[in-house]
Each structure stands twice: as structure tokens, then as C-alpha cells.
Design brief:
single chain, alpha/beta, Aspartate Aminotransferase, domain 1, Aspartate Aminotransferase, domain 2, 2 domains, seven-stranded mixed sheet, four-stranded mixed sheet, about 15% strand, binds pyridoxal-5'-phosphate
């Protein structure tokens, strides 16, 4: 068994040969246990191998492994749509399934184009939507995702994301501490957002893509790969208003923010904004490959039958895992636990921020939390961030980074994480900070 036969294109955060996972832990082939605060990049929200999800997978596998939806309709798929109806906003009542997040984002854009008869899409700086050609073109979080793949599909226009810590207006007028405080108050910004990002968006609609040729605005309600940024609520509410005024469809990419991650079933609940199209993946099926485009029936009816589809979506085992995932989340109140443990984590990180000025910003919502590292001049410090992540891994805590400068440590523990495990992680992080600084 030699690792050199795996394609090197996969960048690898750690060199760990994993044997199995249990709840918040990964166990390697030597028996070493790691507290896994990466969750397979925000996927295993119910923890590794939740016994109820495992049983649902086993039971479905014994009955049927593949039931192609163009041919038959499997019961697990209908069970899943029943469960989704209980957690989606009431207007969202019709579902299309595929396998990965990128596939679902592409599908949402295809739906928007057919439903509106328009060609163009607006996305945001810092966004990540996937690695297919269309979703690469929609991705602005790092050039490494796009470099040497150009030219990419056209018709994609990019506006700034509302990011109080990095906002150019706030950078001119506020100190770093004031910006961190503003960023921490999001989404409840109470009218303190300067409106820079929205001003640029209005300008984009005047100068680059006219509203009548714009099919959709696609946005992550909390920015993921781009740095775990919670925007002011006014930002998303104004996007809704712009879309309503011009007949543009609002698409929320909740691939990373969905399924309890932010302390609500979907992040949209924090902002009081309902999109026209909701995209889900990652936490949906606890690690089985499944993604979903959800919308209202009237809009889905404009999607020409046969003009989109696929062999595998929805895999019937993934559907069974997803239906049980939703039941587990409701019964074990996992979004509520995410909110409580997230508050505990952010409190602990803010205490550490006082001791270590290299932590420029602590921000987040629920269990989608970021610590951004800066040098003495306030510039992004990627090298220090990497040293901190390595020092944590040496102490058996796994963390990933994100952000355009790769200077953000992201905290994405499973939603089953306990108060003791959060304390354990904070203690390890404190020891790592002591070592690095
Ligand atoms: C917000 C968002 N959208 C889309 C994707 C792409 O998902 P996938 O890797 O399953 O294609 C990701 C993956 O990280 C994501 O975070």
C-alpha cells in the first residue's frame, strides 16, 4: 500500500493514515487519537460514524444500492424530501439531487438561466463555489483554484463581499480593534455597516451587467473558504431587495453553512432572508456524497425536463443517510449545541486574543469560527498560521486554514462536540500559541 500512487494534485494538510473515526475523534493506524476540528471540511456534522446514520446506511445497502431516478423512485429519496420539507423555509418545496457541492451550484445556475432566460451571474470576492469550470469561474477566494485553467466560462461578474474587518472604508476610518469589534457584531450590525459592498454592486449593475441580463446573484450567506466571514444582515437583505426589484434570482450557496453548522439549520435563518434557490451538500448526508438544489415548485417547473440530470444523483444510500442525519439533528438538537459550543469557543478564543496580539480577529457564528493571524504591522501572517496549525497537530488537534492569504485558522468541529472537548481544544491551542509566539 504505497501513497505515491495517489495523484499529487490533492494538497494534503496532514500525513495521517486514518483507521477509523468516532464522534469528534479520528484514530490513525497506530491507535493515536486526534480531536478532529476539520470534519472532513465541514461535512461530518453528526460526528464520525454516528451509530444511527451507520445503521441507516447498512439497512439501505442491504436493500438497494443504486436506483436510477430516471428509471425508478426509491423510498429513501421520498423519505429525504419529507425530512427536507420540515427544515427548509416554507416556500422551498421542490428538490433536485446530485453528488457534490460544485455539481449542485452548477445545476442551480442552469436552473436560474432557464427560468429567467438571462445569461449573466453575479458572485462575490472571496467566494468558493467548487472546482468545475463554471464553479471555478465563480470562485474568487484564491488564484490557486483558477491558475492555469483559464480561459474560464464568461458571464460571471464579481462584487465585493461585505467584510467589516477588511472593508477598505473601515480600514481608512477605524482602528484594527474597532474593525474586529464591528466584525464580531455581525450579523447584528444595527445599521453600522458603511454600505461599501452594496455601493459597488449597484455600480456593477450600472456598468457591467444590466439587471435584465442578470439571471442570478449567487452568495454564501457566511463566507467559507474566503475566510469565515459573517456579513452584516443588511448586506443579505439588500441583495434580496435588489433581486426582487429586477427579477434576478437570489441563490444561497449553503454547501458549507447548512445543516446546523452556524447554530441554525440554515444560515439564512440568522438574516431573515429567503433565497429563490438554496444549494446544499457537505453536512447533508454526514459524509455520504449528496448535494441538493432546492427551490419553489413554480420555479422548478421552468426547468425543462431532460435538460439536466445525472446517473447517480440521488444515490439511494446517500438519501437514507441524509434522511437519518436530519432526524438525528432535530432529535439531538445539534444546531442548538452548535450555537452553545460556538459561543464557548469564541469566548475562549477572545480571551486568548488579549494575550496574543497575533490574533487580529476572532469571528464566526455557531461552529463556523475563525481566528485570523496578523504580524506586528497588521499584515496577514500565513507562516505563523501554519506554525500554529502544525503545533496543534503535534498535540493531537486537527485544524484547517482558509482565507485568501491563508492566514485564518478555521474551527469546524462536529456539532456533537462537548463542552469538555472545546476546553481541551482551547488548551491545546493556547499551548501551541505559547510555542509559536
Ligand atoms: C460554499 C461552497 N460551495 C461549494 C463547494 C464545493 O463543494 P464540493 O467540494 O462538494 O464540490 C464548497 C466546498 O468547499 C463550498 O464550501
Amino acid at each position: 500500500m504505497a501513497k505515491e500512487h495517489l495523484a499529487p494534485v490533492w494538497s494534503r494538510a496532514f500525513d495521517i493514515e486514518v483507521d477509523h473515526g468516532e464522534g469528534a475523534y479520528l484514530v490513525d493506524v497506530t491507535g493515536r487519537r486526534y480531536l478532529d476540528f476539520t470534519c472532513g471540511i465541514g461535512v461530518t456534522n453528526t460526528g464520525h460514524a454516528h451509530p444511527r446514520v451507520v445503521r441507516a446506511i447498512q439497512a439501505q445497502a442491504a436493500r438497494l444500492i443504486h436506483g436510477q431516478i430516471g428509471t425508478v423512485t426509491a423510498r429513501s429519496v421520498l423519505e429525504l424530501t419529507d425530512e427536507l420539507l420540515t427544515v427548509c423555509p416554507p416556500s422551498i418545496d421542490t428538490f433536485f439531487f446530485s453528488n457534490s457541492g460544485a455539481e449542485a451550484v452548477e445545476a442551480a445556475v442552469k436552473l436560474a438561466k432557464q427560468a429567467t432566460g438571462r445569461t449573466n451571474i453575479i458572485t462575490f470576492e472571496g467566494s468558493f463555489h467548487g472546482r468545475t469550470h463554471l464553479t471555478m469561474a465563480m470562485t474568487q477566494s484564491k488564484t490557486s483554484y483558477r491558475a492555469r485553467y483559464q480561459p474560464l466560462p464568461s458571464g460571471i461578474f464579481v462584487a465585493p463581499y461585505a467584510h467589516c474587518y477588511h472593508c477598505p472604508v473601515a480600514q481608512r476610518t477605524l482602528s484594527a480593534t474597532e474593525r474586529a469589534a464591528l466584525s464580531a457584531s455581525c450579523p447584528h450590525d444595527e445599521g453600522r455597516c458603511c454600505g461599501y459592498a452594496l455601493e459597488r454592486l449597484h455600480w456593477l449593475l450600472k456598468t457591467q451587467t444590466a439587471p435584465e441580463e442578470t439571471a442570478a446573484i449567487v452568495v454564501e450567506p457566511v463566507l467559507g473558504e474566503g475566510g469565515y466571514v459573517v456579513p452584516p444582515a443588511s448586506f443579505l437583505r439588500e441583495l434580496r431587495a435588489i433581486c426582487d426589484e429586477h427579477g434576478i434570482l437570489l441563490i444561497f450557496d449553503e454547501v458549507q453553512t447548512g445543516f446546523g453548522r452556524t447554530g441554525a439549520f440554515f444560515a439564512l435563518e440568522h438574516f431573515g432572508v429567503v433565497p429563490d434557490i438554496l444549494v446544499m451538500a457537505k453536512g447533508l448526508a454526514s459524509g455520504m456524497p449528496l448535494s441538493c438544489v432546492a427551490s419553489r415548485r413554480e420555479l422548478m417547473q421552468k426547468w425543462q425536463p431532460g435538460s439536466h440530470g445525472g446517473t447517480y444523483g440521488p444515490n439511494v444510500i446517500s438519501a437514507a443517510a441524509a434522511a437519518e442525519t436530519i432526524r438525528v439533528m432535530k432529535e439531538e438538537r445539534l444546531p442548538e449545541n452548535a450555537a452553545a459550543r460556538g459561543a464557548q469557543l469564541m469566548y475562549g478564543l477572545r480571551q486568548l486574543q488579549r494575550e496574543f496580539p497575533a490574533i487580529g480577529d476572532v469571528r464566526g457564528i455557531g461552529l463556523m469560527v475563525a481566528t485570523e493571524f496578523v504580524d506586528a504591522e497588521g499584515r496577514p501572517d500565513k507562516a505563523a498560521t501554519q506554525r500554529v496549525v502544525r503545533a496543534c497537530a503535534e498535540r493531537n488537534l486537527l485544524l484547517l486554514t482558509c482565507g485568501s492569504y491563508e492566514n485564518v485558522v478555521r474551527w469546524i468541529p462536529p456539532l456533537v462536540v462537548t463542552a469538555e472537548q472545546i476546553d481541551e481544544a482551547l488548551n491545546i491551542f493556547a499551548a501551541a500559541l505559547d510555542q509559536v509566539f
